[in-house]
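F.,

This is the one I mentioned.
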């Protein structure tokens, strides 16, 4: 007989107290970091292969680790604020160190502020090397991260969480990485990062879709709680399928119009992620009678894997285009 989700959660709560490293690895959620760091990698590679920038390794590493540290800080603050407000009560397989009682909300809060402080120091270093153009991107990201769950009108609780992650863990990350390497603004990394950004929203939405009942009980307004269960399924399908539509549209526009830069056809390599996409769509559709107990509960983690795969394929598309240009002249 298969274990029910409630039985699995009980086993998690009843498990022995973990080591210091284990509990903080759960609190930090390293599995979620590709959602924020992949746009930095993509934007950096795009600046070199499409924008003609000279690659600066130190600036790239600063931008990459800065983004990861700020993301971690935001996650820790989110956990602390949610727990204190009595909203975060569910234990999920790979997250929830505060809910499990492994660390206190105070510990998470202090760690979150520490990470945000370190991230801002890295940001100031980038400003000193790149200029004030990167300052505005960084300030926007920090403000969105702080007000995601804090303040009189938290973005997460007022159906603006999707927009927040679309900006922070998508277009702003790619644009910031482009500016770090080139020192100039361009709409290209913003537009080309839209498909990846939609998948990041898909990660958040799959989490909120699962938590509709608890969020409504806590008075939280997310896109999922406003749409309801049935429409949330349609929104999930849109977020997972639309990136491929955008890729096709950008390639066709590049061929038909005089766009600069043009998205190369090598981006069709992203369609290798289609099988996983439809696998997740099917799991969402079968949420009431899942094949495995954790299929729907862990849908956010599985969507994060799709986002990582899609991001890697986008970077591969840039590399393939550069290789083709080199060998074909």
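My design for it:
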């Amino acid at each position: 007989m298969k274990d029910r989700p409630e039985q699995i959660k009980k086993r998690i709560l009843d498990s022995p107290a973990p080591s210091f490293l284990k509990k903080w690895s759960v609190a930090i959620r390293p599995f979620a970091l590709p959602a924020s760091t992949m746009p930095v990698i993509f934007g950096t590679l795009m600046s070199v292969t499409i924008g003609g920038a000279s690659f600066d390794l130190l600036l790239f590493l600063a931008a990459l680790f800065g983004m990861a540290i700020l993301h971690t800080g935001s996650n820790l603050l989110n956990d602390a604020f949610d727990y204190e407000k009595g909203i975060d009560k569910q234990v999920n397989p790979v997250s929830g160190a505060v809910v499990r009682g492994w660390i206190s909300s105070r510990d998470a809060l202090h760690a979150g502020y520490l990470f945000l402080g370190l991230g801002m120091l890295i940001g100031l270093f980038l400003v000193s090397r790149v200029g004030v153009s990167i300052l505005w991107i960084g300030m926007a990201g920090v403000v969105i991260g702080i007000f995601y769950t804090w303040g009189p009108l938290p973005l997460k609780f007022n159906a603006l969480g999707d927009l927040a992650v679309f900006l922070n863990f998508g277009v702003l990350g790619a644009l910031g990485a482009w500016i770090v390497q080139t020192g100039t603004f361009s709409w290209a990394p913003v537009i080309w990062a839209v498909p990846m950004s939609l998948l990041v929203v898909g990660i958040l939405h799959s989490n909120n879709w699962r938590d509709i009942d608890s969020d409504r009980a806590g008075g939280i307004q997310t896109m999922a709680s406003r749409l309801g269960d049935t429409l949330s399924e349609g929104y999930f399908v849109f977020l997972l399928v639309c990136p491929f539509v955008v890729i096709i549209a950008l390639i066709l526009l590049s061929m038909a119009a005089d766009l600069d830069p043009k998205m190369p056809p090598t981006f069709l390599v992203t369609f290798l992620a289609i099988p996983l996409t439809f696998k997740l769509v099917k799991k969402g559709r079968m949420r009431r009678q899942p094949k495995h107990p954790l299929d729907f509960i862990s849908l956010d983690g599985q969507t994060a894997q799709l986002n990582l795969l899609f991001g890697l394929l986008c970077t591969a598309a840039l590399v393939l285009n550069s290789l083709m240009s080199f060998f074909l002249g």
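The chain has a mean pLDDT of 88.

Talk soon.
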